[in-house]
Amino acid sequence: MFTRASALLLVVLSLITGMGAPISAPAAQFQAGEFAVEFFPVAPYHIGDILSARVTYTGELPADNWEITVALAVEPDEVLQSTTFSQHNRQAIFYWIVDTADMAPGFLSFQFTLPEASLTWTEGVHLLPDPGDRTAEWAVAHSTCCTLHYLTGTDAAADLAEITAAVESRSALALAQFDEAGVLDENPLTDPLPIVLIPVVVGHGGFATDEAVLTYSHHNWTGINFEILAHHEIVHVIDRTINTNGPRPAILSEGLAVYLSGGHYREGDPLERAAALLALDLYLPITDIVNDFYAAQHEIGYMQAAALVAYLDLLYGWETVIDFYFNLPEGPDDKAIISTASEARFGLSLAELEVDMIAYLTDLHVDSNVISDVGLTVETYDMLRRYQTLAIPSAHFRSAWWPHPRHMRMQGIVGDYAYREKAPLHIIVEHKFTQVHDALESADYTQAETLLTEIDALLTRVEHTDSLFLFETVLVKIHTLPRQLTRP
Questions:
Q1: Does this model's pTM top 0.90?
Q2: Using H for helix, E for strand and C for coil, what is the string for 329-367?
């Protein structure tokens, strides 16, 4: 007779025999519903799209390094790709698994399988006919400083001369800023700086790896000054090129990029804007956010990071600041790294340095317009990310879809960055965001507040109607997805 005691004995024996080896979860412990599947480029999908998929495990079991395969449901034995779940974000990504150019419109079903767990399920997309107007291709232009990759038929292609002049000017300025600190023995950009111009918004409008990827559009609803954005990303690329020996705490690398580019999103004095945060009771203690910088409220964190760099420059001079940053010691975390280096160099721990900086900011006179601008900037981008979460999670910086453009260029793939069809909700909200940015630029803070209230009302309707948004006679289904665990 099989008793509870027998079951307990089997469990104990299995634990003993399994010591020292990975424990595999039984198939029954995984459920297909615990795997959220997203397809890219984003919906709606058309004949001609080269589809990718991202699978996120939302259950409680450790899924890192588990193998997962994908096949067309009509040919389940023909595996298209195999990959494993990341231990960092519990995601498995299949890049460009199938080209739909020769397929017929209709439902395209995929079979996903976890072989080790004997779990299989299907997900799919509705393929619409080829719209016939998707002719964009990757193109390239060369200048003294940079190699510009862009898509034909876009605003970047139309404005290429102006863009080239802007990046030439900003890259020269960035190099001069590093040269002023005495860290350039020679030009670190022996190869032209690669800049990729895309027409769609990803994250906050720009990100950098070994290439600077920038949104360029006449209707960029993130409201970011293109030259400042370009300068910011160029600084990151130069920093990563020449500062290769020690750690680069995020609060300092981002603070450096904001400080050198003249502002975050648009021009602004970093110390004044940090003082405005204090006046608004929005200031976040640096010692609290330094170890998980990207988890802090984005605009506040970046403004304070720039203020920290600016304050160090004010006290000790630019050459000392860069020498300090380029020679940080290794340490268990960013707080310890910066604090140890600060004590050795300046005789102050990070906490003591921040106390002095706050005292300085408290005594700094700040114009009321700066206070209004800072407060509304924080509110605007919180609202913008709320919109992304609800309506276009693939653009939110924590769940962004941003395959490396170089790999796309090598394969002639454009769809992930070339096209973004808009439902009525997207058009309405994004137009209002452009109006908010115009109002902030002209210091019409009353108008900015009014527009943000209107956007809030629209998004609240989406949230309170189970993602169904009725506008006039159009019913739009907004497909929401679980928040992902990635970051830029």
A1: no
A2: CCCCCHHHHHHHHHHHHHCCCHHHHHHHHHHHHHHCCCC
- The answer to whether 387 and 459 are in contact (CB under 8 A) is yes
Give mean pLDDT in consecutive 10-residue pieces for the chain, a chain of 488 residues. Answer: 37 32 49 91 94 94 90 97 92 97 96 93 96 94 93 97 95 93 77 90 82 91 92 88 88 97 94 98 98 96 98 97 96 97 97 98 97 98 95 90 93 92 91 97 97 96 66 36 34
For 335, the token pair is 């707080």
Report the C-alpha gap between 342 and 351 in whole angstroms. 10
Fold classification of 138-369 is: Neutral Protease; domain 2 (1.10.390)
CA distance 310 to 256: 9
Q: Which residues have a Cβ under 8 Å from the Cβ of 17 and sit 6 or more positions away?
A: none
> Taking a C-beta distance cutoff of 8 angstroms, is the pair 46, 120 a contact?
no
Which residues belong to CATH 2.60.40.10 in the chain? 27-128
For domain 27-128, the CATH superfamily is: Immunoglobulins (2.60.40.10)
Q: At what angle do helices 368-391 and 298-316 cross, to 10 degrees?
A: 140
